[in-house]
Amino acid sequence: MHIPKKPLAKKQLIEQMRAMKVSDADWKHGRTWSLVYHQSEKHEALLREAYGLYIAENYLNPMAFRSLRRMEAELVSMTAGMLGGDGDTVGTTTSGGTESIILAAKTYRDRARARRPWIRKPEILAPRSAHVAFEKAAQLLGMRLVTAPLDDDFRVDLKAMRRRINRNTVVLVGSAPQFPQGVIDPIEALGQMALEKKLPLHVDSCIGGFLLPWWAKLGRHVPPFDLRVPGVTSISADLHKYGYASKGASVLLYRSMKTMRHQFFVSTDWPGGVYASAGLPGTRPGGAIAAAWAAVMAMGEQGYMDMAKKTAQATDQLMAGIRQIPGLCILGEPAMSLVAIAAAEPEIDIYVVADELERRGWHTDRQQRPANIHVTVTSNHLKVIETYLVDLKAAVLYARAHPEERHEGNAAMYGMMAKVPVRGLVGKSVRKYMETMYSAEGGIPELSKMGQGEDSDALSKLIDRFGPVAMQAMEKAEALGRRLRERLRKRLQP
Ligand SMILES: Cc1ncc(COP(=O)(O)O)c(C=O)c1O
Hints:
Layout: H1 10-21, H2 41-53, H3 66-82, E1 90-94, H4 97-115, E2 123-127, H5 133-141, E3 144-148, H6 158-163, E4 169-175, H7 187-197, E5 201-204, H8 212-217, E6 232-238, E7 250-254, H9 257-260, E8 265-267, E9 275-277, H10 286-324, E10 328-330, E11 338-343, H11 350-359, E12 365-367, E13 372-376, H12 385-401, H13 409-419, H14 423-437, H15 458-492
Parallel strand pairs: 2-3, 2-4, 4-5, 5-6
Antiparallel strand pairs: 1-7, 6-7, 8-9, 10-11, 11-13, 12-13
Helix pairs in contact: 2-10, 3-10, 4-5, 10-12, 11-12, 11-13, 13-15
Pyridoxal-5'-phosphate is lined by residues 96-98, 101, 131, 133, 175, 178-179, 204, 206-207, 238.
């Protein structure tokens, strides 16, 4: 591909782009259970216009674009008001949940460096279920991520968390809610632990921050999770999820500037000038901040309450429907609108169910440990819950009737990826997939075809050569591991 010699006409370009979009995930009609939060055509038009007003502005320099600085400050202040902040609460907007988490990790690393300079490898202590962005942060920042196992209800095991605190720990983490099963960690108890151990506590409420406050106002049970909880020193909440902003917007709040000051980057010697920034990027799109500000102002409390009500209704309907389908179960007790659907019987492979749902036109997210299908319910799904449940039921019947399919196609690939005990093998396989996707030829390789032919990698070879046998062996090993863990747990219990 070369840059076209002559400019293309707008009409032709837009037509081409519309045509390119045809095979993308269909989110507008509720067929996608993640990635996009769609409020209405009207809301989308507003976001487009607000973004467009600031399409050229660069928030690299807040002094040059004071209107953006004002919007950022107002976003921080409105979010703080919603999440139990007070007059001391400070914060920044960022490009999304991952940036908020990386910045929080950097802040606590540098805070610890200032107080305990002997720490060689600062540790983030988080529940096993904490978002993978903490692992990314640790990798990027030369830190170590230490994880604590979960209780049977998928909330972090507090005793295990406490046992893992050591002289290198620089921050504790809890999620409200965590993504995999949508449950809220015991934030009050974690806050207590943080105070006792004189450690900061970050609450990752990236996905729940803009829904839980309204959920509670609907009269639903929401345990304390925000800055009202003693011991919580920071919290992240994404505008581009249930805040219904356009992509590229999250808020990171701190209880006080005492902590936040460690987030700032300042360089005084660069020939390009003295340089300071609050976040990861240099150049920052003004549009994302402007659209986020417009989103919150346009939604207002009333809009958020209405959205929460519809989301709750859709989630209730979905969960009730799933509980009626023989062979399925829901993992844990979701605190809001994230639901993990698993097989309740060994004859059903949930990854075969997922493949069948995909064939029926549903963009489906698979999780592992344990295997399940993950859905993020939004108000936009209210209109499709019934159809989804019909297809889900049919997909379960299909999986029951075709147990052999667990050894084929995507189901086999996901099954293997979830079960192969040598994680390095899985990592290698996924890296190969990435290399193919980002190679000069480009394109999206089909997951089930990955590694076939010349390009064959270890994981695919395993599937090709030993398919069903390997899978059975791994399932046996897994069951044995589960039994052993159970016996150990019983023996170790006082
Ligand atoms: C709990 C939680 N934290 C962090 C993130 C990361 O957010 P982002 O994808 O905007 O980087 C997510 C995304 O779903 C999440 O659910």
